[in-house]
């Protein structure tokens, strides 16, 4: 597979890197501390085209390929993984899902605003009793003729507080199991839609993660995406691409931690020489660089397969599994390379280590990725 990057790919990477270094880096430690993302930064990300990169220009997007998107995701997540997840959910779950499965009316009404970053979206599949076991949806959507009546609770929802548009999965025909699940576009502000508890998290602390509650929320019938019972297929198909986005986020976290370690190892001196001259540190750097490169190749491969219209279920699961395990391993080693300085906030690697952990959990845990890969292998 040929990864020769075009001039456009390189320019996108440069633009994302400049934005991350000049605008995201200055407040990243504070945002982690206060658990809040900056509205002005979100606005800038929208204006620069980072919120709907793959969406067609007709709907306010950048019309770019998946490879461009993962290149930008890596650069943004190197510096601020919270910005990375906000961007990833909006691009690869909400915008992609709407663009590929929504009606023209739904796209005109919602996608244009989402792709240009005027509003942010959320993807609401998980529930207190349905995480990995996503088919066991307890949220219900009862067909009432011209509308559905939505009742239930979603938890762990990224952008749960800031999002104005939510894609919500709910069970309409329990007897049909996963084939009875629907997906709806649900606007904030509808009567009975309440934003609940905000989670106090280990990592990606600047991104908001909330519980969302629905009590007799009337969702117009035209807000259902796809045919009756399409909701679970929608979720799985969307997550196949979403996992490439999270893999790119994990890659960014790992690459960021590696670059900081390489730089620090040349500056810090012990026993009369830079620590980069101790073989034990050199071996760590070599292994970090190798794993980061391998993760990048898997992420690029999954993105390329998607862009070429080929099957990418296995490739996206492999990329997500490997990149997230790499992020955890590399960031842990990065703290070790920094010694005591790695354990405090100023040097960034402790945050990257905390941020890395979630990439092994959301959009399907590492165990679920192995399950997906095995099912593809054994088909
Ligand atoms: N792509 C397309 N279709 C898929 C699919 C995939 N990757 N995985 C399953 N399906 C389809 C199956 O083909 C099947 O369809 P049919 O009935 O038409 O044949 C249907 O879905 C049910 O599949 P299974 O019988 O395999 O269902 P299962 O219950 O045994 O397992 C699972 C499914 C793979 C474990 C799935 O539940 C899963 O992916 N769980 C993880 C959930 C997840 O990733 N959640 C992420 C929430 S969003 C998020 O996390 C965002 C964020 O943090 C930022
Ligand atoms: P469980 O499913 O209870 O799993 C517990 C453990 O058991 C895990 O180690 C798991 O791998 C393992 N396990 C479970 N089943 C199996 C099996 N069959 N074989 C082997 N091992 C198994 N969800 C959304 O819908 N939208 C979001 O925006 C979103 N954002 C999130 C943000 C954060 C910060 C967090 C923490 C979560 C978010 N999630 C979101 C939810 C996330 O996708 C789930 O947490 C994840 O899918 C795991 O589900 P669970 O937490 O219920 O764990």
UniProtKB/TrEMBL annotation:
Domain of life: Bacteria
Classification via Pfam families: Acyl-CoA_dh_1, Acyl-CoA_dh_M, Acyl-CoA_dh_N
Domain Acyl-CoA dehydrogenase/oxidase N-terminal: 6-118
Cofactor(s) this protein cannot do without: FAD
Family: Belongs to the acyl-CoA dehydrogenase family.
Acyl-CoA dehydrogenase/oxidase C-terminal domain location: 231-378
Species annotation: Dyadobacter fanqingshengii
GO MF assignments: acyl-CoA dehydrogenase activity; flavin adenine dinucleotide binding
Domain called Acyl-CoA oxidase/dehydrogenase middle: residue spans: 122-217
The keyword Oxidoreductase is annotated on this UniProt entry: yes
Keywords, in A-Z order: FAD, Flavoprotein, Oxidoreductase
Enzyme class of the recorded protein, top EC level: oxidoreductase
EC number: 1.3.8.10
Official protein name in the record: Cyclohex-1-ene-1-carbonyl-CoA dehydrogenase
